[in-house]
C-alpha cells in the first residue's frame, strides 16, 4: 500500500469575508515525492500550504499529514513537518546561532544533539563565519538561508517550502535547488509551491496546477507538457505588422496537422503542433512565397510555461480575459527577482542523519 | 521510505516557557531601547519634577518630601512604558514572521504566552529597581524599607497587566508597529496627569478628581505610594476597615486584579483569534 505524506480530500477554505481561497482540492502526495504546486499569485497556494501546516482550518474536507489529522492532532502535524514561509521568518535581534537554538528548542531537539546540529546547519547554509552576528545585519539572501536552516532543525520527514526562491538571483536559486534535491534524495518528502515553472520542471516528480482556488491540472512535468499538443514553432518576422497575414498563410495552406494552434505573437507568430518540427520549413517557404520576410525561426519542446498557458487558458473561455491578466501577472512575477539567497538544506538532512541518535 | 524522526517533539510546558523566556530576554538585553532608553523619560520626569516643582509641592504635602511623593508615580510610569513595549514586541513578531513561526511549531501556545510575559515581568522588576534606587539617591525614603521596595515592584507588575493586555490588543488589531507605538504612548501622559500621580487630588480641579476615580493609574500610584509612605494615601475610595496603608492597598489591589482579568481576557481572546483565524 502506498504511504501518503499528505492526503487532502475535498478541501475548501473560505475566509471570514466569504472569499473562497481554496475549493474542492484533492491532493495525494506520496512519501518521498518531490511535489510541486504551481499557480499564479492569489491562486490559493499559500492558503493551502497554511492549511496543511495547521495554521488555517479547512472549512470543509479532511487533511491528513504524516498520518495525523490536521484538525484533530495539529500538535503531531506540527512536530513532524518543517515549514518555510514565503516571507523570511527569523528574529532579526538574535544571532544566526541563537535563531537556530530557538528553533531547536521549539521543536524539542535534545540539548545533547543541539550544539552539533546547529554547527552542521550553519556550515550547510554557509553562515558559520557570521554565526554569532545579529541576523538584522544579514543580507536578504543570508536571512533566507538562515530561515531555511531553522525549518530543518528537527529533520522533519516532510518539508513545506512556500515559494522558497522568490526573489533570489539565479546562482542562489541553483544552489538552493541542489540542496532541495539532495534532501529529497535522502527520503524527505518535499512540498514546494512556486511561480517559477523552470523550478517545478527541474525539481518536481509531480505537479498540480492551481488557479482560482481549484486544481486545474495534475501530472508529471512530462505528462503536462504533452498536454500542450506538440512542439512550438516561433517565427520572427521582419515586419511584425504583417503578423496577421502570416497567420493567415500558416492557416490557409493547411500546413500543419489537425489540432495545431496558430497564433500571432509580438514579433511574429507561434505554431503549436505535433508536426511543428517537420513542417516548419514548409511554412517558411509559404511565407517567402507570400512575400513576408522572416528574420528568426525557432522550434522548441514545450515548457511548463506553455503548459501553464494551455491549462489555465482552456479552463474557461469566457474568463479568458481574466485569465490573461492572471497569467501575465504570473509571468512577470516569475521574472522579477527580489533579493535573498536561499540554500541547501540537503546537507542538513545528511549531516543530521549521520548523527541521528534517539534521545 | 523512512526518514529518521528521532527528534519527534517531546518538549514540556516548562521547556516551552523557558525557550520563549530566553528569546525575549536576549532581545531586551540586546536592544538598548528596551532596557535603558525606555527609562529615560521617567527619569527625566523624576529629576525635573523634583527640581522644578519640589519646592512648591513639598509645602503642599504634609511632612513628605516631593521626592518621596513622586517616586511611586514614576515607577508606575516605568511599568506603563514597559507594558507598551510588550505590544510592540508582539507586533514586531508578527511583522518578522516569528509569530507565525511559533504557531507552526509544536510549542504549547499558553507556554509561549507565559514565557513572553515572564520576560516582561523580569524586565519591569529590573527597571523599577533602577528607578527606586535612583529615587533613594535623590533623597526619597521608603518608609516600609526593603520589604516595601519588593512590594512596590510587585504592585508595578500587577499594575502593568492591564496596559500590557491593552498594547497587545492594539498590536493584533493594527498589525502595524507605528500604530501600536503611537496608540500605546498617546495615552500615557494624559492618563498620568489626570490621576493622583503628580499632585494630591485635593489640589486638582474637580473634573480631574472625577476622571481620576476611573483612571487605573490612580490605583497603581496610590498603592505604591501607600507602601512608600507606610500609610493610607487613597482619596478616591474611602476604606477604613483594614487600618493604615492596607486601607489603600486592599481596594487598589482589588481594582487592579479586576482590571487585569478584564483586559487580560480581551487580549487572550484577540491573540488566540489572530493565531487561529486568518494568519495572512
TrEMBL record, chain A:
Gene Ontology biological process terms in this record: daunorubicin transport; doxorubicin transport
Name of the protein described by the UniProt record: Daunorubicin resistance ABC transporter ATPase subunit
Native organism taxonomy: Archaea, Methanobacteriati, Methanobacteriota, Stenosarchaea group, Halobacteria
Claim: ATP-binding is one of the keywords in the record: yes
UniProt cross-references to PANTHER family, sorted A to Z: LINEARMYCIN RESISTANCE ATP-BINDING PROTEIN LNRL
Domain ABC transporter: 6-237
Organism: Natrinema limicola JCM 13563
Xref: SMART domains: AAA (SM00382)
Pfam families to which the protein is assigned, alphabetical: ABC_tran (PF00005), DrrA1-3_C (PF13732)
PROSITE patterns, sorted: ABC_TRANSPORTER_2 (PS50893)
Automatic annotation (TrEMBL), chain B:
GO molecular function: ABC-type transporter activity
Keyword Transmembrane belongs to the record: yes
PROSITE patterns: ABC_TM2
Keyword Transmembrane recorded: yes
Family matches, as Pfam families: ABC2_membrane
Residues of the ABC transmembrane type-2 domain: 33-274
One cellular component term from this protein's GO annotations in UniProt: ATP-binding cassette (ABC) transporter complex
Membrane topology: Multi-pass membrane protein
Keywords for the protein's UniProt record, in alphabetical order: Membrane, Transmembrane, Transmembrane helix
Transmembrane domains' residue ranges: 33-57, 69-91, 124-143, 149-174, 186-208, 249-271
Subcellular location field: Membrane
Protein name: ABC-2 type transporter
Taxonomic classification: Archaea, Methanobacteriati, Methanobacteriota, Stenosarchaea group, Halobacteria
Amino acid at each position: 500500500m502506498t504511504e501518503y505524506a499528505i492526503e487532502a480530500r475535498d478541501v475548501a477554505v473560505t475566509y471570514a469575508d466569504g472569499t473562497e481561497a481554496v475549493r474542492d482540492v484533492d491532493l495525494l502526495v506520496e512519501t518521498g515525492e518531490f511535489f510541486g504546486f504551481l499557480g499564479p499569485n492569489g491562486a490559493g497556494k499559500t492558503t493551502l500550504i497554511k492549511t496543511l501546516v495547521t495554521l488555517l482550518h479547512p472549512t470543509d474536507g479532511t487533511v491528513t499529514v504524516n498520518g495525523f489529522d490536521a484538525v484533530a492532532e495539529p500538535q503531531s502535524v506540527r512536530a513532524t513537518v518543517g515549514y518555510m514561509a514565503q516571507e523570511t521568518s527569523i528574529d532579526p535581534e538574535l544571532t544566526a546561532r541563537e535563531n537556530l537554538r530557538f528553533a531547536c528548542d521549539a521543536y524539542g531537539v535534545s540539548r545533547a544533539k543541539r550544539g552539533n546540529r546547529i554547527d552542521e546547519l550553519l556550515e550547510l547554509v554557509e553562515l558559520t563565519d557570521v554565526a554569532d552576528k545579529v541576523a538584522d545585519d544579514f543580507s536578504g539572501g543570508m536571512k533566507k538561508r538562515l530561515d531555511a536552516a531553522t525549518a530543518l532543525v528537527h529533520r522533519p520527514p516532510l518539508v513545506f517550502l512556500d515559494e522558497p526562491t522568490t526573489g533570489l538571483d539565479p546562482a542562489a536559486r541553483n544552489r538552493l535547488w541542489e540542496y532541495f534535491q539532495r534532501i529529497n534524495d535522502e527520503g524527505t518528502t518535499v512540498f514546494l509551491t512556486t511561480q517559477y515553472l523552470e523550478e517545478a520542471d527541474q525539481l518536481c516528480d509531480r505537479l498540480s496546477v492551481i488557479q482560482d482556488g481549484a486544481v486545474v491540472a495534475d501530472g508529471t512535468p512530462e505528462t503536462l507538457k504533452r498536454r500542450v499538443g506538440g512542439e512550438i514553432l516561433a517565427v520572427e518576422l521582419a515586419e511584425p505588422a504583417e503578423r496577421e497575414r502570416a497567420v493567415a498563410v500558416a492557416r490557409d495552406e493547411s500546413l500543419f496537422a489537425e489540432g495545431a494552434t496558430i497564433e500571432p505573437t509580438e514579433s511574429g507568430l507561434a505554431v503549436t503542433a505535433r508536426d511543428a518540427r517537420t513542417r516548419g520549413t514548409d511554412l517558411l517557404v509559404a511565407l517567402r512565397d507570400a512575400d513576408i520576410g522572416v528574420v528568426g525561426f525557432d522550434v522548441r519542446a514545450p515548457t511548463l510555461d506553455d503548459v501553464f498557458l494551455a491549462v489555465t487558458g482552456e479552463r474557461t473561455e469566457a474568463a479568458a480575459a481574466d485569465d490573461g491578466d492572471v497569467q501575465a501577472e504570473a509571468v512577470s512575477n516569475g521574472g522579477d527577482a527580489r533579493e535573498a539567497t536561499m540554500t541547501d538544506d540537503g546537507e542538513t538532512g545528511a549531516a543530521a542523519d549521520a548523527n541521528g541518535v534517539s534521545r | 521510505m523512512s526518514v529518521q524522526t528521532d527528534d519527534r517533539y517531546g518538549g514540556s510546558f516548562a521547556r516551552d516557557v523557558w525557550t520563549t523566556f530566553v528569546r525575549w530576554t536576549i532581545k531586551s538585553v540586546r536592544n538598548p531601547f528596551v532596557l535603558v532608553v525606555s527609562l529615560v523619560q521617567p527619569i527625566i520626569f523624576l529629576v525635573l519634577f523634583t527640581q522644578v516643582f519640589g519646592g512648591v509641592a513639598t509645602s503642599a504635602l504634609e511632612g513628605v518630601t516631593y521626592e518621596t511623593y513622586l517616586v511611586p508615580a514614576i515607577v508606575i510610569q516605568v511599568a506603563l512604558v514597559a507594558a507598551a513595549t510588550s505590544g510592540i514586541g508582539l507586533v514586531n513578531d508578527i511583522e518578522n514572521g516569528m509569530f507565525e513561526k511559533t504557531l507552526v511549531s509544536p510549542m504549547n501556545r499558553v507556554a509561549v504566552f507565559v514565557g513572553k510575559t515572564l520576560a516582561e515581568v523580569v524586565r519591569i522588576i529590573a527597571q523599577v529597581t533602577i528607578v527606586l534606587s535612583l529615587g533613594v539617591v535623590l533623597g526619597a525614603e521608603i518608609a516600609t524599607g526593603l520589604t516595601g521596595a519588593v512590594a512596590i515592584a510587585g504592585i508595578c507588575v500587577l499594575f502593568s497587566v492591564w496596559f500590557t493586555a491593552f498594547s497587545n490588543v492594539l498590536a493584533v488589531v493594527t498589525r502595524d508597529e507605528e500604530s501600536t507605538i503611537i496608540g500605546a504612548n498617546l495615552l500615557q501622559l494624559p492618563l498620568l496627569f489626570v490621576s493622583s500621580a503628580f499632585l494630591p487630588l485635593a489640589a486638582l480641579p474637580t473634573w480631574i478628581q472625577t476622571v481620576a476615580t476611573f483612571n487605573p493609574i490612580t490605583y497603581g500610584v496610590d498603592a505604591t505610594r501607600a507602601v512608600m509612605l507606610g500609610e493610607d494615601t487613597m482619596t478616591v475610595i474611602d476604606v477604613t476597615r483594614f487600618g493604615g496603608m492596607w486601607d489603600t492597598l486592599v481596594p487598589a489591589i482589588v481594582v487592579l486584579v479586576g482590571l487585569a482579568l478584564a483586559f487580560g481576557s480581551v487580549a487572550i481572546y484577540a491573540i488566540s483569534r489572530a493565531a487561529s483565524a486568518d494568519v495572512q
